[in-house]
Design brief:
By secondary structure, the chain is an alpha/beta fold. The protein is built from ten helices and eleven strands.
């Protein structure tokens, strides 16, 4: 099959496929759609990030990522039917009602504050993002409304604060930025992950921002013009300074995420070196440009707007690939974990092979193995837990958080209380 034909299949399948047929998926994967040979284009679109902490905060490294030279193994796509709407990387939740990913009318527009936003009483982010409301969920948890130019909308972020935290205080706290998975929203880490059960024992904050239903954790490509939604700018250049300027979040930070949020935690640490002292990913798609994966993700998302055409915009895919850029994690603590998609101790042993939970963890597991192998070649220390049988669900992720949490706390200097 010629490359021109491959590209037509990828684009046509994205635009018009009503059913994701296993034969198409496997054929595209075997053909290596989105995996041209030769030297990749000049790398991505990471932006310089200002420091919001004290002068001693590590400086941010600007410029393009330096892709790893280690090749990724092709991803073996399970030969099972997946109908349109099935999301192998779904995490069991529901998207926010005002999800910017679904508001196609705003996509590609120049970043701007949503209408009707006044000056307010809270300190703003450098681009004008501002807190419009704070709702107390319980004694140690708040829902924060943020008017975001990067998203052109008001979205939510949930914040867990440690005992002793006071809005009028001056003490700053170590902080974990926790990113949710696809087809979910900002309440996921609290509602599904019960993150408070581990966080309450330490003097650290946990910030859980909205990440969109697609869970791309990227500034969207939008045909090369960029613009709304700019998730990376929202998380890095808006949420972080707003938390530091208004909630006493400190500059000692960690990033963690599950499923697509795991991709976000690792790639953010890579693209903004020094921003996070530790990054953890649970069942994350950590090798999106591996042979086979661009076709799967393009079909699954039903769009090329996120990272662009897998062939023509290859460099943008690579710029958001955790495995390609693994060398940029030197000096950052890393924890990754994944199952292999087979029913494990927390799953129904009779779960059919075509279950989205099985397929998603199979793919995540293969990508995590590629990531770990690339890290070894690059000389980047990584703590990995490849636990074998296990599907794509919260029963495993809660366990993995319990296992990794003490190490994350130690990395950011959080103390037990």
């Amino acid at each position: 099959m010629k490359k021109r034909t491959d590209r037509k299949i990828a684009i046509a399948g994205t635009a018009a496929a009503a059913v994701i047929l296993p034969a198409v998926m496997v054929g595209l994967a075997q053909a290596g759609v989105g995996v041209p040979k030769g030297k990749p284009q000049a790398a991505g679109n990471a932006q310089p990030i200002p420091s919001f902490g004290p002068p001693t905060q590590p400086s941010q490294v600007t410029g393009s990522p330096s892709p790893s030279t280690s090749p990724s193994k092709p991803i073996k796509v399970p030969n099972v039917p997946l109908t349109k709407g099935d999301n192998p990387f779904g995490t069991g939740g529901t998207p926010a009602s005002n999800d910017p990913d679904k508001n196609s009318g705003s996509h590609g527009k120049k970043p701007h504050l949503p209408p009707g936003i006044g000056s307010g009483k809270y300190a703003k982010a450098p681009d004008g993002a501002t807190i419009t409301a704070i709702k107390k969920v319980h004694a140690q948890e708040f829902d924060v409304s943020i008017a975001s130019p990067a998203l052109g909308a008001v979205v939510q972020t949930r914040v867990f604060v440690p005992k002793g935290w006071k809005a009028s205080g001056t003490t700053t706290y170590p902080v974990v930025y926790a990113y949710h998975g696809g087809n979910n929203k900002y309440t996921s880490w609290s509602h599904d992950g019960h993150i408070e059960n581990v966080a309450k024992y330490y003097n650290a904050m946990v910030v859980m921002p909205e990440g969109g239903s697609n869970g791309s954790y990227s500034n969207w490509w939008n045909g090369g013009k960029g613009g709304i939604p700019e998730w990376e700018n929202f998380h890095i250049s808006e949420v972080i300074p707003l938390m530091e300027r208004n909630f006493h979040a400190g500059s000692s930070r960690a990033a963690m995420g599950l499923s697509s949020g795991g991709q976000g935690s690792i790639t953010y640490a890579e693209r903004h070196q020094g921003m996070f002292k530790y990054a953890a990913a649970y069942s994350g798609p950590l090798n999106i440009s591996a042979p086979g994966m661009p076709a799967v993700l393009t079909l699954m998302n039903n769009t090329t707007a996120i990272w662009g055409d897998p062939l023509l915009n290859r460099s943008n895919w690579e710029a958001h690939d955790a495995t390609v850029n693994v060398s940029r994690l030197k000096g950052t603590g890393v924890y990754v974990s994944s199952g292999n998609g087979k029913p494990g101790p927390y799953d129904d042993p009779d779960t059919p092979p075509g279950s989205a939970g099985r397929v998603g963890e199979d793919l995540a597991g293969q990508m995590t193995v590629n990531f770990v192998n690339a890290a070894k070649q690059a000389g980047v220390p990584v703590t990995s837990h490849l636990y074998g049988p296990g599907m794509h669900n919260w029963k495993y992720w809660r366990r993995e958080v319990n296992l990794s949490w003490p190490t994350i706390m130690a990395a950011i200097g959080a103390k037990k209380i």
